[in-house]
Recover the amino acids of this structure.
């Protein structure tokens, strides 16, 4: 059953950046974008590369290893070499606190 889990405060993620967030053996990427906060799986679907050192370009995350790109809001794979989508997770901000539904 899904539940809302506290991640961090909003001021702990710079604008146009992301952080790595690990919870119960899984790793996630939490983004602060021009359209708000978003969450996806943390590891690229191409190889076992975490996205935490990737580049946020508007609403796109670019993998630091081979440059594959994903839509941050939906997790959709946008450009080779990635072809499998990331899972995107619902996120909510209550006051200055970020929660993810996983
Ligand atoms: S590991 Fe991400 S594009 Fe290759």
């Amino acid at each position: 059953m899904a539940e809302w889990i506290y991640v961090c405060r909003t001021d702990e993620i710079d604008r146009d950046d992301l952080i790595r967030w690990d919870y119960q053996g899984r790793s996630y990427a939490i983004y602060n974008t021009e359209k708000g906060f978003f969450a996806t799986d943390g590891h690229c679907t191409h190889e076992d590369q975490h996205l935490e050192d990737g580049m946020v370009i508007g609403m796109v995350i670019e993998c630091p290893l081979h440059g594959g790109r994903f839509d941050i809001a939906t997790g959709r794979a946008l450009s080779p070499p990635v072809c499998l989508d990331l899972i995107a997770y619902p996120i909510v901000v209550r006051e200055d606190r970020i929660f993810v539904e996983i």
